[in-house]
Design a protein that fits this description.
The chain is of the alpha+beta class. The protein is 39% helix and 22% strand. The protein has four domains: 5-12 and 88-179, Alpha-Beta Plaits, CATH 3.30.70; 15-84, MutS, DNA mismatch repair protein, domain I; 185-236, 5' to 3' exonuclease, C-terminal subdomain (DNA polymerase, domain 1, Orthogonal Bundle); 253-355, DNA polymerase, Y-family, little finger domain (Dna Ligase, domain 1), CATH 3.30.1490. Strand 10 (293-302) and strand 11 form a beta hairpin.
Length: 358
């Protein structure tokens, strides 16, 4: 049987929901995230719609930078950005309804995050039949939730996910198995999962910029130059991925982390970022169908790359976001003074994790 996998990815999910619910926002650049505080805000952008992205504003952009770019656009005579605070409970509820629409047609569906999912469509028998089914699901999401999703269909999860991002927003891309390697070849190496900006720069220094350049290396060269991850890339650049679509997988933990653009000890900034990470984790917890967690943990990486994790198992289950934020703050505060940070090092990464999900 031919393996066929689909990846659904909602378009600018949080921002799209806010545009849908507030007609006055439609057609304007919109950012969902921290309060910009007239350019003095210390949080980050959670989601930017596509008009805001045209201003150079993206997820994780410092909210102060987003404000500055909005003001630059206003001075050019363009519409300024509308800034909206995050409403995770609303987004999680919409996510549940969207996933329910997909599950009506795809019994083997794996929710990967609050706004994306994989489905196994091998049973349809052909890429053409799979495409027809996915078009009907896209239409149902649009009709019932007034939101668009981008769809990628491929012979495995790797190709399906990359394909879904090719023609956003409202994209639809089908890559048959025979076309998969040719599909990857002209793409930037950044398309390969695990290759971020720093690795991209390191590869560029070796004249490796496109997937087809990386594909020229043998598996021995890959291993010698890049270690274990090089061996993983060897398979990926050849469009190989045998990871299954898992239906009833229950995460043992849910986590999010952020690496800051600049190392910092700004307590206000760190507390705000911690709150946003906690909100994201809590939204994922709800979207996965869990009601509570018992263990709360944070990870702190200092400027010298020393990494420390601290966790606390609560006597009572954590069932709401304010309680989660309070527990996270208790874990963070010692890192802001000499209890956990005696040398007063700046912090480059902050992570949040919840465990013992119920």
């Amino acid at each position: 049987m031919t393996r066929i996998v689909v990846h659904f990815d909602m378009d600018a999910f949080y921002a799209a929901i806010e545009e849908r619910d507030t007609p006055a926002f439609r057609g304007l650049p919109l950012v969902v995230g921290a309060d910009p505080a007239q350019g003095q805000g210390r949080g980050v952008v959670s989601t930017a719609n596509y008009k805001a992205r045209a201003y150079g504003i993206h997820s994780a952009t410092p909210i102060s930078t987003a404000w500055r770019r909005s003001e630059e656009a206003r001075r050019r005579g363009q519409p300024p950005v509308m800034f909206v605070s995050v409403d995770m409970r609303k987004y999680a509820a919409v996510s549940e309804r969207v996933m329910a629409i997909a599950r009506r047609a795809i019994p083997v569906l794996e929710q990967a995050s609050i706004d994306e999912a994989y489905g196994d469509l091998s049973g349809t028998g052909s890429f053409e039949a799979a495409a027809d089914l996915c078009r009907s699901i896209k239409a149902a999401i649009l009709a019932e939730e007034r939101l668009t999703a981008s769809v990628g269909i491929g012979p495995n999860k790797l190709i399906a996910k990359i394909a879904s991002g090719i023609h956003k927003p409202d994209g639809f891309t089908v890559v048959a198995e025979a076309e998969a390697e040719a599909f990857l070849a002209p793409l930037s190496v950044r398309a390969i999962p695990g290759i971020g900006p720093k690795t991209e720069a390191a590869l560029a220094a070796q004249e490796i910029r496109l997937v087809k350049d990386l594909k020229q290396l043998s598996i021995l060269e890959m291993g010698a130059r890049f270690g274990k991850r090089g061996c993983e890339w060897y398979a990926k650049v050849r469009a190989q991925d045998d990871s299954p679509v898992v239906v009833h997988w229950e995460p043992k933990s849910i986590s999010e982390q952020e690496t800051f653009e600049e190392d910092t000890l700004d307590s206000q900034l760190l507390v705000e970022r911690l709150a946003q990470l906690g909100a994201g984790v809590f939204a994922s917890l709800v979207a996965e169908g869990f009601e509570s967690c018992r263990t709360v943990a944070i990870t702190v990486r200092f400027s010298d790359f020393t990494t420390i994790t601290r966790a606390h198992t609560c006597a009572d289950p954590v069932r709401d976001l304010p309680v989660l934020r309070r527990e996270l703050l208790k874990l963070l505060l010692p890192f802001l003074d000499r209890r956990e940070n005696p040398r007063r090092q700046r912090i480059r990464l902050l992570g949040v994790r919840v465990e013992k999900l119920q």
